[in-house]
From TrEMBL:
It comes from Fragilariopsis cylindrus CCMP1102. Residues 55-197 form the NAD-dependent epimerase/dehydratase domain. This is NAD(P)-binding protein. The lineage of its organism: Eukaryota, Sar, Stramenopiles, Ochrophyta, Bacillariophyta. Coiled coil: none annotated. The keyword Transferase does not apply. The keyword Chaperone does not apply.
């Protein structure tokens, strides 16, 4: 073949390989623009001077962006995380220690979560690690606050629409001592499905807390799909492959924080009933499973017993 022919084939090859990503990036940008949060046109954010927000997950991503806006409203934020060296939600004794330092709490912002990618990884207390971090630690934190006779006016739990894919059976959680959440066959396990199960647990916790804390407005929020460090435990190849799409298509933490802030601090959210699930300031229905008060109550009890058995209640 002539050298001109070889060059033409090489160019054609480059076009075939290079064109799809080139076309995908503008498509991703259009997707992001379409999915930017559209909050109500007008709403009033409260003056939070003199108010204390206890926040988890504020060292990064959506939590960090939200507390920055809460501080702009005058709130004093007491933040707990591993990187700040004062809270590991996957360690019940650390949760207890953190709550000792809380003297006042008007709003709880529960934003911390992790996706552990090693199946079967356990916490120091012997629970499944993702479940311990995303759910057991949160329930323990709330119970410790309750024990101190502190009554926040709002609790905002950052959940996820992925809860709709979650599967949780309180009887299995009990039987397996918090190392398993359901009877999904092992071959169908993925880290993201498992994370979704823990987000369903969070949504069930919202349901339980509405009854348990009648004087508090308990809200959950879906922040949308956001470019954060949530995928930090995934392998390098995954991070590299998804990087362009994450950067171009997903929401920024600042955008996602608007809906979380709305639930934490708007007058309008305060007028909604406890248990409301917000998406960008609009009310949506969480999964039917998560709204089953009897089942949610059983999960609360099972988790309470697991915490008590570790001598941490
Ligand atoms: N990103 C999304 O697309 C998306 C979608 C739906 C819902 N969400 C939810 O949004 C929330 C915030 O996540 P993000 O996307 O902003 O992720 P992120 O950037 O990874 O932030 C997670 C936060 O959780 C904290 N955290 C993790 N493990 C912890 C532990 N054992 N103890 C204490 N704190 C711990 C981290 O702090 P340290 O590492 O310093 O401990 C960090 O501040 C999560 O509840 C997540 O489920 C995210």
């Amino acid at each position: 073949m002539s050298s001109r022919g070889r060059t033409a084939i090489r160019r054609l090859g480059l076009a075939v390989v290079g064109l799809p990503p080139l076309l995908a990036l503008p498509a991703a940008a259009i997707y992001r623009e379409k999915h930017r949060p559209k909050l109500p046109k007008e709403y009033t954010l409260q003056d939070l001077r003199g108010k204390t927000v206890v926040a988890t997950g504020a060292s990064s991503g959506i939590g960090r962006a939200t507390v920055s806006k809460l501080r702009d409203l005058g709130a004093n934020v007491q933040s707990g995380s591993r990187s700040e060296g004062n809270l590991d939600l996957a360690d019940l004794s650390s949760v207890k220690e953190f709550v000792k330092s809380i003297e006042k709490c008007d709003v709880v912002l529960a934003c911390a979560a992790e996706i552990c990618t090693k199946k079967g990884e356990t916490s120091v207390d012997g629970f499944d690690k993702t479940f311990a971090t995303n759910h057991i630690g949160l329930q323990a934190l709330l119970v410790e606050i309750e024990k101190k006779n502190i009554h926040p006016s709002r609790v905002v739990i950052v959940g996820s629409k992925l809860e709709r894919n979650g599967l949780v059976d309180p009887d299995i959680v009990k039987k397996e001592n918090g190392t398993r959440l359901n009877d999904r066959p092992d071959e169908q396990y993925t880290a993201v499905k498992h994370y979704s199960d823990t987000k369903l647990c969070n949504q069930m916790l919202t349901t339980s807390l509405v009854e348990r804390w009648p004087e508090t407005k308990v809200f959950s929020v879906s922040p949308g799909m956001v470019d954060t460090d949530l995928w930090r435990n995934f392998p390098a190849w995954f991070q590299i492959l998804t990087w362009p799409v994450r950067k171009v298509a997903l929401r920024t933490s600042e955008d996602a924080a608007l809906g979380v802030l709305y639930a934490c601090a708007s007058e309008e959210a305060g007028e909604q009933k406890s248990g409301t699930f917000f998406v960008d300031g609009s009310v949506e229905l969480a999964s039917e499973d998560s709204r089953d008060a009897e089942k949610a109550g059983r999960l609360w009890k099972v988790v309470e017993d697991l915490i008590r058995e570790r001598g941490q209640m």
